[in-house]
Amino acid sequence: MSKQWWKESVIYQIYPRSFADSNGDGIGDLKGIISKLDYLEWLGIDVIWLSPVYDSPNDDNGYDIRDYYGIMKEFGTMDDWELMLSEVHKRGMKLIMDLVINHSSDECEWFVKSASSKTSPYRDYYIWRPGNGGQEPNNWESHFGGSAWKYHEETDEYFLHLFSKKQPDFNWENEALRSELYKMMTWWLDKGIDGFRMDVINMISKAEGLPDASEVRDTPYQPAGDLFLNGPRVHEYIKEMNEQVLSKYDVMTVGETPGVTPDDAALFTGEDRNELNMVFQFDHMDVDSGPGGKWDIQPWTLSELRRILDGWQLGLEGRGWNSLYLNNHDQPRMVSRFGDDKEYRVNSAKMLATLLHTLQGTPYIYQGEEIGMTNVEFDSIDDYRDIETLNMYKEATEERGISHDEVMRRIYIKGRDNARTPMQWNPTKHAGFTTGEPWLAVNQNYEEINVEEAQTDKNSVLHYYKKLIALRKENPIMIYGAYRTLNENKEAVYSYEREWEGKKLLVMLNFTAIPQAYKVPPKWIKSGCELLISNEAIHPSLEDGTIELSPYEARVYVMK
Ligand code: TEU
Ligand code: CA
């Protein structure tokens, strides 16, 4: 593998709680993951990104770490984890762990000591401030609703939590805290892992003095992203982390960085920056959000999605590397959001997969995406588990007078549990995920949508993913080719070229449920070309100059 093996890899994200349950307690676990490694190897996966498996009270399903050196008991033991790692490596795959170091759980021993007294040597590991005339220290809103501050009676101060009340933010200005975190990272790297996905890593440096948010909406607390995203010392901290830890290992890092532009991303991922290898940007994940944020749902347009993705493809060309994703454990299922999860589920899932595997960057497959799993609609709010959803439901219905039906409509479209229903392995009860009662109900379409069915159906989404992944390994142009956008019928068709060492690819994706005319660029007629992959079986030749793309049809040609 080249030094930059992460550029040539396809990465698969496992959300362990929902992946595979080996002991019938209804919760996915490490032994369950081990039982599915042959499947991932068969698919052609190179790297597994494992969402947090550290000891946690699960206020935010593991993104609230209580013991950074221990495994959550529901998931198994450290021996199980060691076995999993060796089984991953035995199959020639790599493992990156999800690292949450912007905040910990309030049950983490560091926080318990920090909260024990104002004079604790750990006090400054977290962000404590006195109240402001009986009010919170500033007007910041938590991502999970309400104030970003919680009052701590025992020491008569507030602590900052940008997420849940049980996720206190670390104070990265404290050097001892940073050393603790680097020591912990080294401990995991010495176990042989192949890197980290770093949770909200661009939130670790907050604005000097923690001033009030200037943008004031008609809500009690205000979004303050400009005051805690890409803060004044964020690059200093990450460079220090790289110098003291990461640079000593052949590992990959991908930072989760809400609110970054391509210019910001180039600062985090530039090869001469010695910070991170890649970042997850969110511009395309906000394409259907209005000024009120994710729950202010707006229709999205292909021209806006293209503008965003073009911007990232061209913006990072030659100075960074894109992470390519349309799904993860925080986002609704891509076939429901950007495709058609009813009449054209299979074709639109394949079309979206073609997009992700023919842009420049590293593709990330989220568990279930490869079989076209869809969003879910539970009848009752009591069927939901995600803290973000439950807090929003309570605040919207009880404090803002929004109707139950309207709030449920928003949850159906944007709720995070859409992505967290158990992986659908086969058509037996609970989709073969568990022999017990699942922690979150299985999507009722599992009899039709499951891995077993997909493996037997040669035309399934799954076999299409397997072919796309294999093509990337055989055609470096899909990895390294320069990206050039094309504007033919651009409101309905996303088309672009890739160019590398004299070779050319032409990609055309019909993003609609109706046939679309597409005028082939003349140079492709003259030169002649052959079809590399398509989600349709028959294709009029390109000679005619104008072709018709069927609903959600995807085609990729290579120039002769
Ligand atoms: O998510 C950070 C983040 O930006 C989320 O607020 C995301 O935008 C939101 O969930 C979309 O609805 C990371 C983790 O991926 C997420 O699961 C955690 O809840 C969060 O950090 C706190 O650790
Ligand atoms: Ca289990």
UniProtKB/TrEMBL annotation:
<dbReference type="GO" id="GO:0009313">
    <property type="term" value="P:oligosaccharide catabolic process"/>
</dbReference>
<protein>
    <recommendedName>
        <fullName>oligo-1,6-glucosidase</fullName>
        <ecNumber>3.2.1.10</ecNumber>
    </recommendedName>
</protein>
<dbReference type="InterPro" id="IPR013780">
    <property type="entry name" value="Glyco_hydro_b"/>
</dbReference>
<dbReference type="InterPro" id="IPR017853">
    <property type="entry name" value="GH"/>
</dbReference>
<dbReference type="Pfam" id="PF00128">
    <property type="entry name" value="Alpha-amylase"/>
</dbReference>
<keyword id="KW-0963">Cytoplasm</keyword>
<dbReference type="InterPro" id="IPR045857">
    <property type="entry name" value="O16G_dom_2"/>
</dbReference>
<dbReference type="InterPro" id="IPR032091">
    <property type="entry name" value="Malt_amylase-like_C"/>
</dbReference>
<dbReference type="GO" id="GO:0004556">
    <property type="term" value="F:alpha-amylase activity"/>
</dbReference>
<keyword id="KW-0326">Glycosidase</keyword>
<feature type="domain" description="Glycosyl hydrolase family 13 catalytic">
    <location>
        <begin position="13"/>
        <end position="420"/>
    </location>
</feature>
<dbReference type="InterPro" id="IPR006047">
    <property type="entry name" value="GH13_cat_dom"/>
</dbReference>
<dbReference type="GO" id="GO:0004574">
    <property type="term" value="F:oligo-1,6-glucosidase activity"/>
</dbReference>
<keyword id="KW-0378">Hydrolase</keyword>
<comment type="similarity">
    <text>Belongs to the glycosyl hydrolase 13 family.</text>
</comment>
<dbReference type="GO" id="GO:0005737">
    <property type="term" value="C:cytoplasm"/>
</dbReference>
<dbReference type="Pfam" id="PF16657">
    <property type="entry name" value="Malt_amylase_C"/>
</dbReference>
